[in-house]
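User: Show me a protein chain along with its predicted structure.
Assistant: Here is one chain, sequence first, then structure tokens.
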Amino acid sequence: MLHRAIVGGQVQGATWLTTKANLDPRYRGFGQSALPQTLWDALVIAEKLGLRYMWIDALCIVQDDEEDWELEGSRMASIYSSALVTIAAASSSSSHDGIFNKRSITPLQA
């Protein structure tokens, strides 16, 4: 799950977040280049699993709209408890790292 970054009432950072300013174009869709690698990887996973829908907080909730956050936030338990799968990019340090990144594995010592 990605969380919004609001400073002084303004969404900070990522241009790919859904905001009031880009809500209408979002309804028309967007291409791969509009998303950071981690989100694109998650969409690829969903497609490979044959899933038609995917919930990404940063895209599905208007980040600079308190009313939308209150409405959608109240539905989060239902959304996640009804999910067929939950994808976590646990080894990624940012939304730009991707899900399929290399990591070092340290063998366990007995």
